[in-house]
């Protein structure tokens, strides 16, 4: 029996594809800039306690492009509309890379739309003393390689379906094109976000990062912590880990998130 299903839902004035799996209280998952990576071990484990709901970003997969969404803040406003329409206000949320940036922007719009929020290697803030990698000026294969510190971790080969097909490469390029449109200048950050984070109150936040993150430097974790100074925020940094702690430190990641969301 399949662990997950995909369905297209009419919501927020458009159609939006969702990956769904598991049972229990809802957990919204915002995927990264290369799109949804496929159903991985951490999805299976957290689906034992949660109904995982992964909206596929407009312009990717079966979700039609929305031309009037011009940047990540617009996308965050759109997803906030989706949350209201689907009666998901008060759900937990977890965001990866650009998906973490989206979740953070959503929290600045209305912290109460989430019960708890997890940010994993979140883009959105340009850290001092480091640069976010311009993943749009390199190939998708190169960006995928940079995203892990240890290429020998078992799940690395499973990312995006393992052996890449022409259809998957086309999906990569669709995702890169759409996200370049939304995040190109400045690259993968919003200079205003750090200031608006100060207004987030009453929302517990777990920040997770890999110390060897080659996409978003680990210094950005401290920037998020400082920006979220008016709420309960925790930070976990994993050594010998890159941009994907969910696969490089899978067991520790699952335990941490499960305990935080309990």
Lay out the secondary structure:
Layout: E1 4-11, E2 14-22, E3 25-30, H1 41-46, E4 50-55, H2 72-85, E5 91-96, H3 98-109, E6 114-120, H4 140-146, H5 166-183, H6 193-196, E7 205-210, H7 219-227, E8 233-238, H8 245-248, H9 250-261
Helix pairs in contact: 2-3
Describe this structure in words.
By secondary structure, this protein is of the alpha/beta class. Helices cover 33% and strands 21% of the residues. The chain has 9 helices and 8 strands. It has helices at residues 41-46, 72-85, 98-109, 140-146, 166-183, 193-196, 219-227, 245-248, 250-261; strands at 4-11, 14-22, 25-30, 50-55, 91-96, 114-120, 205-210, 233-238. It has an 8-stranded mixed β-sheet with strand order 1-2-4-3-5-6-7-8, with helices on both faces. A hairpin with a 2-residue loop joins strand 1 and strand 2. Helix 2 packs across helix 3 (98-109). The chain is globular, with a radius of gyration of 17 Å.
Would you summarize the structure shown here?
The chain is of the alpha/beta class and 262 residues long. It has nine helices and eight strands.
Low-confidence spans: none
End-to-end CA span: 27 Å
**Percent range for helical residues?**
25-40%
Report the biggest beta sheet as strand number plus sense, adding barrel if it closes.
8 strands, mixed
| Spatial strand arrangement across the major sheet | 1-2-4-3-5-6-7-8
Q: Would you list the SSEs in sequence order as H and E?
A: EEEHEHEHEHHHEHEHH
- The portion of residues forming beta strands comes to 15-25%
Mean pLDDT: 94
The number of helices is 9
- Total DSSP E strands: 8
Rg (CA only): 17 Å
Q: State the secondary-structure class.
A: alpha/beta
């Amino acid at each position: 029996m399949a662990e997950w299903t995909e369905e297209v839902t009419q919501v927020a004035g458009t159609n939006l594809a969702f990956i769904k799996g598991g049972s229990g209280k809802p957990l919204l998952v915002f995927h990264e800039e290369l799109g949804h990576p496929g159903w991985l071990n951490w999805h299976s484990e957290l689906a034992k306690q949660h109904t995982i709901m992964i909206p596929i970003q407009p312009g990717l997969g079966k979700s039609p492009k929305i031309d009037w969404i011009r940047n990540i803040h617009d996308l965050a406003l759109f997803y906030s509309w989706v949350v209201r329409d689907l009666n998901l206000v008060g759900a937990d949320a977890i965001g990866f890379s650009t998906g973490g940036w989206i979740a953070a922007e959503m929290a600045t719009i209305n912290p109460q739309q989430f019960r708890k929020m997890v940010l994993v290697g979140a883009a959105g803030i340009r850290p001092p003393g480091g640069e976010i990698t311009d993943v749009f000026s390199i190939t998708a294969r190169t960006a995928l390689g940079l995203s892990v510190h240890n290429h020998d971790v078992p799940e690395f080969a499973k990312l995006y379906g393992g052996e890449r097909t022409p259809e998957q490469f086309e999906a990569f390029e669709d995702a890169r094109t759409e996200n370049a449109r939304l995040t190109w200048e400045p690259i993968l950050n919003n200079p205003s976000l750090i200031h608006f984070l100060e207004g987030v109150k009453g929302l517990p936040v777990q920040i997770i990062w890999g110390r060897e993150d080659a996409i978003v430097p680990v210094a950005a974790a401290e920037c998020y912590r400082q920006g979220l100074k008016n709420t309960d925020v925790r930070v976990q940094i994993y050594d010998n880990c890159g941009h994907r702690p969910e696969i490089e430190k899978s067991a520790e990641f699952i335990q941490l998130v499960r305990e935080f969301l309990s």
